[in-house]
């Protein structure tokens, strides 16, 4: 396993535990985190990534992730995965995600997720991001 793949697998383990402080340690100072379906949600830098993660997943109990495919070329890794969002109130949401991760000096400089917004929002409780339109 390459150092970049090892870093990525640690990121997913930290994501599963919703350990946001540990997640932030995986990123470069100028990292970009992009959710492709929501263009306005792109953030830059660890503080902005932290705020985005706290808003989106901070209320979850856990976020188990299964990696189906992982392809690595140089400092780029592409991953197909399934996430299961475990809310503390008992609701579950399952989401398939394809992603691109770029690495620099052993840390993640780009995290770009591709997923279907309707699939995710249709499974979430109304208390999750209540100000975001569901239609």
Descriptive notes:
With 135 residues, the protein is an alpha+beta fold. It is globular and about 40 Å long. The protein starts with a helix and ends in a 12-residue tail after the last helix. Strand 6 and strand 7 form a beta hairpin. Strands 1, 2, 3, 4, 5, 6 and 7 form a 7-stranded mixed β-sheet that branches. The protein is 28% helix and 41% strand. The longest helix is centred in the first third of the chain and has 14 residues, at 3-16.
Query: What would the principal axes of the Cα set say about the shape?
Result: globular
SS field, number of helical segments:
4
Biggest beta sheet attributes: 7 strands, mixed
Helix-strand sequence: HHEEHEEEEEH
Estimated structural class: alpha+beta
Helix residue percentage: 25-40%
Mean pLDDT: 91
Number of strands: 7
% residues in beta strands: 35-45%
Low-pLDDT residue intervals, each spanning 5 or more residues: none
For the record, give the distance between the C-alpha atoms at the N and C termini, rounded to a whole number: 42 Å
Give the C-alpha Rg.
14 Å
